User: Fold these one by one.
Assistant:
Number 1:
Amino acid sequence: MELKERLRLAIVLLVVILVGGTIGYMTIEGWPLLDSAYMTVITLASVGFMEVHELSSGGRIFTIFLILIGLGTLLYVISTVTAFVVEGELRDVLRRRRMERKIKALRNHYVICGFSRMGSQIAQELEKSGRRFVVIEKDAERVEMPDHDDEILTVIGDATLEQVLLDAGLENASGLVTVLAQDQDNLFVVLTARRLNPKLRIVSQVVEENSEAKLRSVGADAVVSSHKIGGMRMASELIRPAVVSFLDVMLRRSDAVYRVEEATVGTHCGWIGHTLGDAAVPEHADVVVVGLKQDGLIVFNPKPDVKIHENDTIIMIGAMEEVEKIRKLAHSAG
């Protein structure tokens, strides 16, 4: 029997003994409800108080059986409650240690600071696109994500504190996103994270528009205003509904995860020095190349004669498994 069921059974047995003892004294001795209940409690507790009233022979025999049954029930209740508390604490300690080991082993993962509605959406997108991530949140009960089979790697604490960021493996992370409710908290996170990992890509939410410049000045690579994004979405729904429908279908397909993704050309990639036509990216995987980022500039719908250089970023649309094929080729010597 599981521990929770045992605890439930123990409570039911205790209530049954208390009610049964009270009814027994009322029936055998003819005592009032309060006296009968009091006698039952002091008998089960074995406190050694005097009987409420003089007991008859039948009452004494009933008391003997009540003591034997009641003490056994109390011992069962006490042992079950103790096991429930100890096992729960032990399970939590073991779970926390297991999670800490997993976080320490992570490399090139992402850190999400804050698990509000936006933080939850970010986590779901990272999960769908196959990225590993760690959540930092003060409130452990908030860290829940639907349709997530595995345990979410979580650090419970204040994301503005340096040690909490280190506990999330920030030094080995590829990126961090902070979506805390206050701009000043996001500012502290960005400032601390940039100092701990200068190569980290940092994206921050901004509430007040006048905070954007401050966040960028302390190290944020990108600053996103939920108000602006929401406004753009509503305007797009108004004037280009077909485009919005296309993107929604792409993002919400259940048979496969389709995204606008990117692949950076590595040092040993065989495509370096060749044209985009020679690379024939669509022939290697079922993707559509929609852009190419070179020297900080993005070329939309690049022509086949565009040459590929090291650190160029290929922007494409396709299923995640197809995108991964291109990523591997972009880092291979073949």
Number 2:
Amino acid sequence: MTRILAATDPLPTNKPIVVTVGKFDGVHVGHQELIGSTVRVAKESSALSTVITFWPHPQQLFQPDESVKVIDTLEDRIKLLCATGVDVVKVQPFDQCFAGMTAESFLSKLVDDHQMIAMVSGPDARMGRDRHAGSAELSSICGRLGVRFEVIEQVGSKSQMGTRAVRESIQEADFASAVKALRRLPGLSGEVLHGKKRGRELGFPTLNVSLSEDVVLPPVGTYFVAVVFDLNPHKIHLGAANLGVRPTFDGAEQLLEVHLLDYDEMVYGQKVRVLFCRKLRDERKFASADDLVEQLRCDIASVRSESAIDTSLLHPWYCT
């Protein structure tokens, strides 16, 4: 079982550690391979495989006026990291103090205080104040410290498999590309909130799911989705979700409303994961509520006609 360490929790000192460091936004295939190598090296050395992940995103420190959209919340990132089988996940606050450290100071501290015996890195990793240390410098520093340094090969092209590519795929509703890079369906987690119950009045009760302003979203529209409740991760619910402002009713606030097939339970306050499978249509303003109801019937029919979902793409939210 993975040990999760918050900002104030120290890394273990009872056993040597093998470390990989980075943002790990999205925990895409490159991250998965990097962490897999870290786990392998740690097992070879009877050490603890350790992921140090930065939060908040460094751009929030260096470019505070620019909006930063991440692929997953910190809570979801931790869940994804734990699913890799790593021994320890440490959340490292990315603040002025940490950003000002040199790579050598940071790595020396890991060696002196926490028995780091190896570090695993990606080919384009950069670390330390002003990102001054690349792979060559990190290898040199580790050599001086008596630490094994291993670099994994690039997994696919960054233009297709990197964090930015995943973010852009989600923003364009290109879920096939996102799945290729993530090895899972993209989605978001939120809490079921009380809404205006407009869907129930129309005969299509919906879950009003909270949205995080920090998480990247697909474009407004209606989607075929799979939903997993945190309290019951052994069951998958299919449905149609509308992401938008409800223009038919002159709405202004962006909402995520999910109608689940054959489901009408009160689950306010519960946390859910909404996974995007396919875009059904753009959001538009209908001439009347009756026209909207007719379209909703078509949306539900489209969802019912969909083929079975590959449950391996729901990991780690769905547990068999």
Number 3:
Amino acid sequence: MPSANDIRKGQVIKFNGEPHLVMETQHRTPGNLRAFVQIKMRNLRYGKSLDQRFASTDSMEVLSTDRRTLEFSYADRDTYAFIDPETFDQIELSAQTLGEVTNYLTPGGKVDVLFVEERALSVDLPSTVSLKVVKSAEGVKGDTASNVQKPATLETGLIIQVPLFVKEGEIVRVSTVDGTYLGRA
């Protein structure tokens, strides 16, 4: 097993019996103390981030990972189905595993899925997605003083703030980082 010194960003390690994605590592050697490695990591099952300090000689278990680009196929209650476009294998993930990702999934949309020891654990979206506006109130004429916005419901059920000129049926680009309107597609 590799030591804490050998751990790098992007690897998945087993810590307290759970898989954790390493987001940042720093090797530190304070003046008269022993060297240690500070690791910022995120629990892949629960999404919580934590900072942990390890002695530089501590051994750690690095889990085997694989990233695949899959296409979203359909949703059935709390289960979301994805298809591998190369092998046509179907993978199902629960709504609990996906979390906020479900607000941006449309049939045929591509996502990157992280597999840890052949089990899908997390889904990464592209930075922006294009979604159709299904419900939006009409803007009031003359209400254009400065950057006035209105709520709009998108095809996935997500409600975002859009400018007054956006109408029902239009396709808009939405940031998957914070759910904000970026423009028309």
Number 4:
Amino acid sequence: MISREVLEQIAAWSKDLLPEEIDRARRGIVERTYGKGAYVCHQGDRFDCWAGMVSGLVKLSTVSDSGKQVSLAGLAAGAWFGEGSILKNEPRRYDLVALRETRLALMDVATFNWLLEHSVGFNRYLVHQFNERLGQFIGQVENDRMLDATGRVARALASIFNPRLNPGVGKHIAITQEEIGLLSGLSRQVTNQSLKVLENAGVLQAERGGIVIRDWSDLQKYGTMAG
């Protein structure tokens, strides 16, 4: 169980819950830490909990029929994920890998289902979450074959800075070029060149150990329009 204060810090959705719903939610959540490079779960595994990012960085990826690894999204502070697999009661269709030491808040299925049945605020959050993810993945499918390296870096960073899916990030994130390359499926050298292009375009500013953006929509549009 976690405290009310911690829940409010790590879960934007808790702001729409009634007091008794908040108490039920926090009683059903535990925290767990994963080391750098550790798999949170493998594609095909049962991972019967709804998970929130307390800290760290996780890559969500899958493997195509041809054996190519495809990066789907990056997950950072404030992101909650896995609701689709819980609702469909199915194994995960993707790998989840911690790119650095990562701490997750794990909500058990019984608590998730209770909130689904009783909380209007929780259901409203899930509707917005599904809508945002649908738009994200449709955009990815539309542009996957057209994006050049810079566009792929922009798209990977856009997923990290998405204020609705990763509300804890803001406009700065501590992230290395190696981690950006892992999210983009590119070498560190190519990632470095792409970041310079994006910086020259005024989309972001690369600092030692981190990235600062001016506006998320600029990054998102670049990732959509590049190629």
